[in-house]
Amino acid sequence: MERIGIIGGSGFYSLLESPEVVEVDTKFGKPSDKIALGKINNCDVAFLPRHNSKHNIPPQKVPYKANIAALESLNVKRIIATNAVGSLRPDYAPGEFVLFDQFVNMTNNREDTFFDENIVAHVSMADPYCSELRELAGKTLEKLSIPYHKTASVVVINGPRFSSKAESKFFSKQGFDVINMTQYPEVVLAKEKGMCYLGIGIVTDYDAGLEGNPEIKPVRSDEMLAVFGKNIEKAKDVVKELFPSVYEKPKCNCVDSLDGSIITK
């Protein structure tokens, strides 16, 4: 049985019909938490809370390899991931949704590949996010009348601290749209496994503020979580509405992501 994987906050537990919680172990250790198996609109789903259901795993300590490997072991072929993001531009406002199409990695010391023993592979990351899932998500957001942006380059920082004003200004000048702490290496590892990956961002703040607008203050955790909390029900509506279309046989080529990439066997 193929499943759709959902990675996000613990609020998504409520979407599952008659969930069964299973404990999974992998060669890379245990994932962030036990995984809930259930159905959404009669489609088989595996849900994993990225930071644990107690939200006690910081972004730099998330066991990304174990998470993706655990979902793979449960026959997950497509992943829907939700993230809180900070805006780096004035027209990406708090409360709006974004669909990631590119990432920029500014993290360090994260285990970010499954090809670090015996096999050498150079996997293309030109298009890290599934174009088919992004199109389906866009149609769903429009149907639900939720303001969103079709594209977003997300710069991923190590965390757990927020950016300095100088860093935020630098990221903005580079043309990056939003900032986050967990998209990397999650999307990369999914790509290495040939999974379709959809990254949905919920804009919660303006990062270190907006230059020239003293009324927009730098982000605080409590304020960020408050905005995220106000929009989590919308995110759940989006995910629920995406089924069963995301459960159908993929028309994309994500499964072929390793073609021509493996150098040694």
- Domain count: the total is 1
Number of strands: 11
What class would the helix/strand composition place it in? Answer: alpha/beta
Rg over alpha carbons = 18 Å
Could you name the ranges where pLDDT drops below 50 across 5 or more consecutive residues? none
CATH architecture: 3-Layer(aba) Sandwich
Under CATH, the topology can be stated as Rossmann fold
CATH-assigned homologous superfamily: Nucleoside phosphorylase domain
SSE string, helix = H, strand = E? EEEEHEEEHEEHEHEH
What fraction of the residues are assigned to beta strands by DSSP?
15-25%
* Biggest sheet features: 11 strands, mixed
Global shape: globular
Mean pLDDT across the residues is: 91
CATH class: Alpha Beta
Distance between the termini: 29 Å
Instruction: Output the number of helix runs.
Output: 5
Portion in helices: 10-25%
Can you characterise this structure?
- There is one protein chain.
- The chain has 265 residues and is an alpha/beta fold.
- The chain is built from 5 helices and 11 strands; from the N terminus they run ββββαβββαββαβαβα.
- Strands 1, 2, 3, 4, 5, 6, 7, 8, 9, 10 and 11 form an 11-stranded mixed sheet that branches.
- Helix 2 (131-143) crosses helix 5.
- It is globular.
- It starts with a strand and ends in a 23-residue tail after the last helix.
SSE inventory with pairings:
Layout lengths: L2 E6 L8 E6 L12 E6 L2 E7 L14 H10 L2 E12 L9 E3 L2 E5 L24 H13 L4 E2 L3 E5 L7 H9 L4 E3 L2 H10 L3 E10 L15 H22 L23
What labels describe this entry?
11 strands, 265 residues, eleven-stranded mixed β-sheet, single chain, 5 helices, 24% helix, alpha/beta, Rossmann fold
